[in-house]
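#random but structural
TW: two for the price of one
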Amino acid sequence: MTRLTSDLGAGPVFEPVAGLASGLGAGLVFGLVAGLAGVFGLVLGLDSAWGRLGLARLWLAWHGHQPPRLMAFLADAHERGILRQAGAVWEFRHANLQRRLANRP
């Protein structure tokens, strides 16, 4: 790297500008690589069953078809006696409620 000096011998004039340009270039390259890696990871993550489940939960919550915190909602309904848990299955305790929800379009 050559140093350009002023006529008065005040020291390097363009050295900080060159450092700034190389730093911006390196930051741009790093940001591009990191962004592409993030997009690639997102695509691979959405290809798995967990990724699709997470996307579906976000979509349903966004459109008001499911509570955003589904497990907290189910635990609260269980504590209030509305739901019972049989293994990994949640069931409504009251037959009238089951029939009413089953008949909805």
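TW: number two ↓
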Amino acid sequence: MISDKDLLSLFDARMRAAAVPDEPGARIEAADGVIRQVGATPRDWHGVLYSTLDAATAEAAIDSEIARFGALLGPGGEFEWKAYSHDRPADLAARLARAGFRPGAPETLFVAEITQLAAGLPSALPSALPPAPPPGVTLRPVTTASDADLVAEATEAAFGDGGQRARDRVLARLAADPDTVWTWVAMADGRPVSAARMLVHPGTGFASLWGGGTAPEWRGRGIYRSLVAHRMRLAAELGCEYLQVDATDDSRPILERLGFRALSVTTPYEYRF
């Protein structure tokens, strides 16, 4: 097992500095100490993934990104600077706020080493990984456009919004990679109550987990844990070495029991034109 410091450095090097697009049609651009992702359409996610700035270069880089995305997206557009607590300069967050970015809810970056999973699970995990979803819940693979509607419904139930964007993302993924299942919906009482996806990042050894929010009346029953465990097994079967997820403090005990380690805190700084 590598140290937390080395694991964080590995994450930065492979998943941020050498990032690849995580949505169909998106592209990665690098310029002046900044790595950004530009979506294929205005509704896609656009933002800064990584930066190697210091006190002398940060201000100009921030202004440059605002100008770059402003010209690209126009009035009503928005982009995000995904900042981490270990990023430099140390006052990057304050600089973003002064430039007009608004911070969203912070989440903790968790990473698990899952190399051993492919060989039969680390000794600490067999009792923690549930063998199946909780009673009354089934995990449905997302393979059709109608399934995308279920993802949208589950997203709205869990978060109160974001359903259309989640649906568009699923449809784009299905069109680009129709033979692979990357998203699952948890069904209970005949309706979707949670949705979650996994991405594999070729050449990095990493897979990442997204979503997993659950409708309020179904929280606390093990659905999130089951979705994480399901994707954890699949990542191991695919030969991934590491599994990454950004999560709130509510999920922390679940993730730590499954072998994840907290490495940093990430905050989305959003800029709207």
